[in-house]
Design brief:
Strand order of the largest sheet: 2-1-6-5-4-3
Oligomer: single chain
Distance between the termini: 31 Å
Shape: globular
Structural class: alpha+beta
Radius of gyration: 15 Å
Strand content: 35-45%
Largest sheet: 6 strands, mixed
Order of helices and strands: HHEEHEEEE
Length: about 130
């Protein structure tokens, strides 16, 4: 991949808009919108805090039964990168007032038929007391 095809401003802006729209849907617990952000494919993967989502059907089942996230959830340390016109990643930490844990979220995004879709995601929680010094 050519270095000038990484993190092109127009691609980053488009991907960031999709990432922000996903977060907004998550905060309002808009299940149909959340489902639509994931690629409609049996190979789409979402590893959650307490579940393994292999395939879009498993991801939809999880989302249909999941409790809403805390409405005051906040993001920090957001890192969004793009590779070419149609591939990117988004990583962030999240905090919520109902837990001392630090949430971590990683998403792989691909532009499919003109729309950004998540093809792989991983969500985990970390006890801040267990953090190793950096």
């Amino acid at each position: 991949m050519e270095p000038d095809s990484i993190n092109r401003p127009e691609v980053l802006a488009s991907l960031r808009a999709a990432f922000n729209a996903y977060e907004a849907a998550l905060l309002r617990h808009d299940v149909p919108a959340l489902d639509a952000f994931f690629d409609d494919d049996p190979q789409t993967v979402r590893y959650g805090v307490a579940e393994l989502g292999y395939g879009i059907d498993a991801i939809r089942h999880y989302r249909a039964t999941a409790a809403p996230v805390h409405p005051e959830r906040s993001l920090r340390n957001i890192v969004i990168r793009s590779f070419g016109q149609d591939t990117g990643s988004a990583c962030c930490e999240f905090l919520a007032p109902d837990t001392a844990m630090i949430g971590r979220q990683t998403q792989t995004w691909v532009r499919i038929a003109g729309a950004w879709r998540i093809v792989a995601a991983h969500v985990s929680l970390l006890n801040p007391e267990a953090l190793l010094p950096s």
